Amino acid sequence: MHDIRAVRADPAAFDAALARRGIAPASAAILARDEARRTAQTAQQEKQARRNAIAKEIGMAKRQGGDTAALEAEAIALRDEMAALETTAAEAEREQTALLEVLPNTLDPEVPDGADETANVVLHQHGEIPSLAFQPKQHFELGEALGLMDFATATKIAGARFTVLKGALAQLERALGQWMLALHTEEHGYTEASVPLLVNDAVAYGTDKLPKFADDLFRTTDGRWLIPTAEVPLTGFAMDTIIPEADLPMRLTALTPCFRSEAGSAGRDTRGMLRQHQFWKVEMVTITTPEQSVEEHERMTRCAERVLTDLGLTWRRVFLCAGDTGFGAARTYDLEVWLPGQQAWREISSCSNTRDFQARRMNGRFKPKEGKGNVFLHTLNGSGVAVGRALIAVMETYQNEDGSIRIPAVLQPIMGGREKIG
RNA sequence: GGAGAGGUGCCGGAGUGGUCGAACGGGUCGGUCUCGAAAACCGAAGUACGGGCAACUGUACCGUGGGUUCGAAUCCCACCCUCUCCGCCA
Hints:
Number of helices: 12
Number of domains: 2
Distance between the termini: 51 Å
InterPro entries: aa-tRNA-synt_IIb, aa-tRNA-synth_II, aa-tRNA-synth_II/BPL/LPL, Ser-tRNA-ligase_type_1, Ser-tRNA-synth_1_N, SerRS_1_N_sf, SerRS_core, tRNA-bd_arm
Binding site for L-serine: 229-231, 260, 283, 381, 383
Strand content: 15-25%
Low-confidence stretches: none
CATH architecture of the largest domain: 2-Layer Sandwich
CATH topology of the largest domain: BirA Bifunctional Protein, domain 2
Binding site for ATP: 260-262, 347-350
EC number: 6.1.1.11
Shape: elongated
Number of strands: 17
CATH class of the largest domain: Alpha Beta
GO biological process, one term: selenocysteine biosynthetic process
Mean pLDDT: 94
């Protein structure tokens, strides 16, 4: 959520920031509501002050047995006048909020221009695109041939965009999640959290999933939401709180299933388990100060890269351009992994600094060591990494010509020393 | 699910429909005292949104949202949450 005072202070800059995202100017409409609200509010408050004074006078007069009829009449008149002003102010504020809450975050100045992913900038690549001596298969071909990946059963019991894993592949998926979690907690200073997978409106709104992206989420019959990422509950730790600066940065991680309706992606990535309604993901979230968030973003991204490097995967860091940066993010790095079977780079992690955009929405602040007042926090989130896609990448990268799959060295201890599947 | 109790400031805890933004205690910060500290004493301190160049000032906030009233922390209604007992349950 944007700071209305920032819009007021420099409407042109606000509209220019929106233009980078290809969004029409909005400051005039917003400021009209702001002006209307303040005018009505000021008038209403003046009447309220008078009404409060009258109430006091009546109280004193009654104690002395005086006549209060005239005062009471004035108070009633005031009440009616105030009601109209209050309605005007509330309506203007509602409209202003409705306009503001669907506007994306302001981009970091360094974010490259561009309308879509073709303008993203590859910052660096780790590892070579492997040239196999045979025709590599895609993960679902490998999985189905091994009899360990079963889409038919998943479809029968749940529907499209679900997968059943069995035996060593199920174990490999579990090992990946466990191992990533251990890496972040033991070496990267993140605190593991086990969190609710169902959340309320407030935290979904605070993490900018609502109201604009409600269609992307699954909703429970009692009005809660299945989390699309652990970013939602973890960032929610900061909601409606004032954290002492000494407790920052707060680095949190969780391994959770993620649920996405994939409403807008019908027909895309329908084969295999690349795009599912449900997948496991290790998420990292940092809650910190404005001074620390820039460096924290780099640090978090390196933590995600470490996962891919240690798994022996080929990956690259991509700086998302203006048009591809997500709604809540000021700056985002995607990590893309090379899938030999698909012969393509695919997103496996996305690390974003939202600055104070989410913190404003959820009223998350900290108390600075120096100086007065409370300041909005900065929140960052990043996948560390998507487990389902890591499984795909491992399968396609470590496949042998006979369809068997070697197990990356770091995972072998958790896989009971096993070195190969199939 | 049934029955009951309760939600007040950083914490504990008062609060009669009318000078209550809220007693009192603790904690915090500043000061006095001290070689220094403790104790004691004195003082300060909430958040949000307006108005004002500013000093300052107005309004709101006692779980949330409505209502009654000239006036609500206090009365009424709904909802949320916490606790106790019973039932059920991984």
